[in-house]
């Protein structure tokens, strides 16, 4: 989860930008309402109800929403009386429509306000309105140095840089916004159209690339079991239930191992009228030092089309993913998603429907078609002036096997909660937890608890700390705790991992 655009800041930022970008009036009107703090409703990774080896698929490319602007201030409509309270003379000039005099008055005050981000933000807004892009760039650079969490100032800096002809810097700032914050769909439209304009005026690609590398330790690299023995049940000639303990070989016990993980990704976005086409692809590997038979490779391709509508921001997406385990193909997963998101005050609510086709290379009995439904809400809060973003998601799934799978149809229910906030030195902390339940309709095996229907409870906790080094690179720290509980001892697992790495975007 990423930082959110503050509601007021983005309502201020978008009306002029969208008009300048050539977005139709209907969309612009909608957009101003939509500029409420927006964190996309995230798709959770489905709980694998069949306790296959604990593969670590890479997430398909993040999907964000539509468009982009031309020369104009993103913030002029956002100057409020509070912004001007400390500058009455500049306010008088603005009331008379004299932007040049207002800017000159403010610039004469710089020495007295050298540590005031609101002062530099106001200078930047007026300079951008006057097409004085060099002055605007300098002012917004001062703002983001003092307020690195100010998403609106980052957007203004990116736009000022683009208008000044510094496309390399502008591209870097747009990349930073999209990776460190969560722009609402309309802001994505603004960014995408600016990218298209830069591409038309210079050799600036609509493609974005990223790569990352991490090293870590996993306490359960081989997806080992918690139990050292499995209780087996069977009935004798008189149908009396008998129970025996079956000692497991030590190879089934959880084993710790170090790993190296690496990934590369590419993303292409192209405005198509009021729509945005978003295509992403990625390749990720995790190589264990000792447990090489549990090393994984995942390759994914995603495509989505986003469009603002009267009901909210609508999108349709298709994801394809291939997984390899220990050097052999394991699984092909295809997902089709339709979703809608709608702003409500400082939150966004979203609903989606998803059909998943899960196909195993050799384990054909585990093939299934899964129908998912999801609802969620993402909100932007402030606690003692610290911006905090929260997400709560609920998912339910109907897992229908295509063959004779043990346990038959499985019902999934998941609850996901995430909290993110800035911490010291410009770093960002994100904590997420997932509670998931899966229940089979039929008995799993006659020798496991007298053919009881299997129930799985999964709890996952994950902490990520992102420390930006610059607009293009971050240092990552990740800690994760995974636990599976079940009425059948064969499916009880737990494991922890911790890793550190580096991410670079270009």
End-to-end gap: 21 Å
- The helix/strand order is EHHHHHHHHHEHEEEEEEEEEEEEEEEE
How many helices does DSSP assign?
Answer: 10
Summing up helix and strand content along with how strands pair, one would put the structural category as alpha+beta
Strand order of the largest sheet: 3-6-7-8-9-10-11-12-13-14-15-16-17-18
In the predicted model, the low-confidence regions spanning at least 5 consecutive residues are 1-77
Approximate shape: elongated
Rg, please?
26 Å
Strand content: 35-45%
Biggest sheet record: 14 strands, antiparallel, barrel
Set out the fold topology:
Layout: E1 3-4, H1 7-21, H2 25-34, H3 81-84, H4 88-95, H5 99-107, H6 117-129, H7 133-146, H8 151-163, H9 167-180, E2 181-182, H10 185-201, E3 207-218, E4 229-235, E5 241-247, E6 257-272, E7 275-288, E8 296-309, E9 312-325, E10 328-344, E11 347-360, E12 368-383, E13 386-401, E14 410-422, E15 428-443, E16 453-470, E17 473-486, E18 493-505
Parallel strand pairs: 1-2
Antiparallel strand pairs: 3-6, 3-18, 4-5, 6-7, 7-8, 8-9, 9-10, 10-11, 11-12, 12-13, 13-14, 14-15, 15-16, 16-17, 17-18
